[in-house]
Amino acid sequence: MRKLMLLLLLATFLCVPSYAQQEGEYAANYATAPRFKALFYWEPGAEEAHVQFDKQAIEFFHKLSYGNGWIMDVTTSLADYPYERLSEYSIVVSLNAAPADKAQREAFEKYMENGGGWMGFHASAYNDRNTHWPWLNRFLGCGQFYCNNWPPQPALVECDQPQHEVTRTLPMQFVAPPSEFYQWQPSPRKNSDVEVLVSISPKMYPFGLKDVVKFGDFPIVWTNKSYRMIYLNMGHGDEGFIDATQQLLFVNAFRWVVSRDPKGDPFKK
Description:
Helix content is 26%, strand content 23%. By secondary structure, the chain is of the alpha/beta class. A nine-stranded mixed β-sheet has the order 2-1-3-4-11-10-9-6-7, covered by helices on one side. Helix 2 (48-64) links the parallel strand 1 (37-42) and strand 2.
């Protein structure tokens, strides 16, 4: 009996999480100065549903900048951001927007090829036969836009890599708020440099009410491991920030890209 009690106590001890700390170490790491700079890029002349998301995203991340933890700059044009200026930022967040002309594209390419960070939403990655920017497809690790559901609706999504830093605090499955979701051809999953993190569940098929997606591989969050980047297909309409799980996904993704800055992880300083 005594032996059994000891075994039960040992099992209980092993099941209790350890919160041990190093002697003399303080639990918090308070910033004494801004940790990094982030540039948010959006287009006020885009379609209304994209502008709705963009404005809400700017407000959402602005609240996360309270207390001078980091510097948040916002622009509606990259024309004034050559490579030298872009390189001041740990991350560029593209809200349904992409570099429009040759000079802007070249500056962005140089920024990313030299360790820059990028977090893109929805139409920031849209491309078709008229885009004429082959580097973008190499950067994204996928082909062109293929099809989409319509109208925007909620979707059951699945975490493909539950141990990844971006998804490890998320449930294995959750319902993403209404959006228009893009499918790509070929799928980014076919690229060995790409790590797919979240996908539309096959249980959703047929997916849509007017425009119906019947089948196919449907990643919506991924990273091309050749770059410091993450793409999230959410970004259409005014419901992108109504769900705490999706908000956590956005924060995780943002923090993950910044934490991998070649200059060092600013959250550990």
